[in-house]
Amino acid sequence: MAYLLVRNNPTLRSPLDLRGFHVRLGAEGPTEGVTEEVRAFCAEIGLGLEQVMPRFEPTDVAPFDCYRCARVRRRTLLEVASGAGYSHLALGHHADDVVETWLLSLFYTGRGDALSPSRSYFEGAVTVVRPLYELRKPEIERLARLASFPAASPVCGRENDARRRRVADALVSLGRDQKLVRRQLFWAAVRQLEDNGLDREE
């Protein structure tokens, strides 16, 4: 996402003031931060990168499950963006994230809350946008190979036990039907967002 934003920024009528923020948080708590390869990559494409420590609530006690980890990271990013005077926060969720998050919500809460393409916080001061919203993960992985992206970070130690992984594996088990099912589930999630005024979040 960062690569595409930086690459296309000069073509915009009003170029954006782009800056990357990385929350130093993993399942076990604060981490050492981004790798030197990622630092070098950001420098090469001309993107400033700032590492920030997570902001915890009293109830945020490690180790974190995926849901709580994501909430802490998103809350931290929103507060950092707001404090730095940025009006928009871009997150890298893609179409497969939309499908898997929606299924997770259906399976484990019965509500079917979905990721939205955009949503405002702090009374409109900061708007979260997801520029990759309609792109499939294989498309992004192909770009990563062609552009020789570095690995973003070490794999989370709890990834293989996560509910999200089990949901993804269930979709993979559909074989040749997986692509069709993912597409249908994606648009089902989008229709539900539209029915709810695009005001639902994971």
C-alpha Rg (nearest Å): 17 Å
Give the SSE order as H and E letters.
HEEEHEHEHEEHHH
- By secondary-structure content and strand pairing, the structural class works out as alpha/beta
Molecular shape: globular
Number of contiguous helices? 7
Distance between the termini: 20 Å
Would you give an account of this structure?
- This protein is α/β, with parallel strands linked by helices and 202 residues long.
- The chain has helices at 2-8, 36-45, 66-83, 95-109, 137-146, 163-172, 178-195; strands at 20-23, 25-26, 29-30, 49-52, 88-90, 118-121, 126-129.
- Strand 2 and strand 3 form a beta hairpin.
- Helix 4 packs across helix 6 (163-172) and helix 4 packs across helix 7.
- The model has no long low-confidence stretch (mean pLDDT 91).
Quick summary:
The chain has helices at residues 2-8, 36-45, 66-83, 95-109, 137-146, 163-172, 178-195; strands spanning 20-23, 25-26, 29-30, 49-52, 88-90, 118-121, 126-129. The protein is α/β, with parallel strands linked by helices and 202 residues long.
Write the layout of secondary structure elements.
Blueprint: H1 2-8, E1 20-23, E2 25-26, E3 29-30, H2 36-45, E4 49-52, H3 66-83, E5 88-90, H4 95-109, E6 118-121, E7 126-129, H5 137-146, H6 163-172, H7 178-195
Annotation keywords:
202 residues, alpha/beta, 7 strands
